[in-house]
Amino acid sequence: MIYTCTLNPSVDYVVEAQQIELGKLNRATKTAYFPGGKGINVSRVLKRLHVHNVALGFIGGFTGQFIADELKREHILTDFIAVPGQTRLNIKLKGEKETEINGAGPIISDEHKEALIAKIKQLKKGDILVLAGSLPPSVDDTFYVTMIEEAKKRRVSVVVDTSGNALKQAIAYEPFLLKPNQTELGELFGTHIHSRHQIIEYGKKLIDNGVQHVIVSLAGDGAILFHKDVILIAQAPKGIVKNSVGAGDSMVAGFLAAYVNEASLEEAFRYSVAAGSATAFSEDLCTEEEVHRLLGEVNITRMEDRV
Ligand SMILES: Nc1ncnc2c1ncn2[C@@H]1O[C@H](COP(=O)(O)OP(=O)(O)OP(=O)(O)O)[C@@H](O)[C@H]1O
Ligand SMILES: O=P(O)(O)OC[C@@]1(O)O[C@H](CO)[C@@H](O)[C@@H]1O
């Protein structure tokens, strides 16, 4: 079974306006609410690709209830821990550019943290645990390490899609998959990445440190996959971007969906990039139909074998 864990879910409030001027009254042309947070997005895309999964994490208040209701409506299994306070509301402004304002999230007590660890202790060999998104302010960034340690004791494969220190600490545990974007890859090594050459250099370093698969996502420029001696470079399909929120999460879901269906590495990567782009070209997350439509448009080349 695949479990996703979103410590800090969100209701994503998408607001479209022709132009947005700070300090003025702006009128929206369109608004929408989506259940969000990175792990929840992974769960929603997995489900659309017919892969059963369970969404774990902390939810609270009317915003948390909205998430639980929406996932139920989509027939996604959940095992959330209800906490006092409100799940955050993240604003996604779509004017000439995309601007995001993400909330902080509720306070999580030690008792609730322990309740989540108890759920991780129930996982079994062969399960996959996806740890995705930021931590609420009251949760120390070593909390991911605690979860990873419990998962690894039980031979559960761990996927990590977060940033900052939490991501850095995860590397020592040789996760199954990391999906940093270019900025996050640079942050991992305390640098800014400006060239393809640097992406290759630092991607290889992650593999040399024991990470099993690394996908560096490059938005409209596609992605690069690293695994053992293999480096695959994908060009993203071209299209009109409607909402890139969740594109990275869709990549993780696409890769896992193909992996559990025993696709080859190249096919899993193709599926991953198609899912990311299908989400970028959609208002909500991708549909299976759109992913399949884009598969043939993902061009993958192999870099010569690593020495
Ligand atoms: N403009 C675009 N055109 C085509 N594909 C895109 C575009 N933006 C994103 N994608 C697809 O989505 C994938 C992930 O995008 P990106 O690198 O922006 O992830 P991210 O930074 O993790 O995003 P997020 O945090 O919003 O989920 C890309 O590798 C690509 O396949
Ligand atoms: O604040 P975090 O946890 O880093 O990111 C949260 C978030 O921006 O990520 C998802 C898209 O990847 C959105 O659904 C959500 O609002």
Automatic annotation (TrEMBL):
InterPro entries: 1-PFruKinase, Carboh/pur_kinase_PfkB_CS, PfkB_dom, Ribokinase-like, Tagatose/fructose_Pkinase. The keyword Nucleotide-binding applies. It catalyses: beta-D-fructose 1-phosphate + ATP = beta-D-fructose 1,6-bisphosphate + ADP + H(+); D-tagatofuranose 6-phosphate + ATP = D-tagatofuranose 1,6-bisphosphate + ADP + H(+). Its EC number is 2.7.1.144. It is an enzyme of class 2 (transferase). Pfam families: PfkB. Coiled coil: none annotated. GO terms for molecular function: 1-phosphofructokinase activity; ATP binding; tagatose-6-phosphate kinase activity. Residues 7-284 form the Carbohydrate kinase PfkB domain. Pathway: Carbohydrate metabolism; D-tagatose 6-phosphate degradation; D-glyceraldehyde 3-phosphate and glycerone phosphate from D-tagatose 6-phosphate: step 1/2. GO terms for biological process: carbohydrate catabolic process; D-tagatose 6-phosphate catabolic process; lactose metabolic process; small molecule metabolic process. GO terms for cellular component: cytosol. Keywords: ATP-binding, Kinase, Lactose metabolism, Nucleotide-binding, Transferase. Catalyzes the ATP-dependent phosphorylation of fructose-l-phosphate to fructose-l,6-bisphosphate. Belongs to the carbohydrate kinase PfkB family. LacC subfamily. This is Tagatose-6-phosphate kinase. It comes from Anoxybacillus mongoliensis.
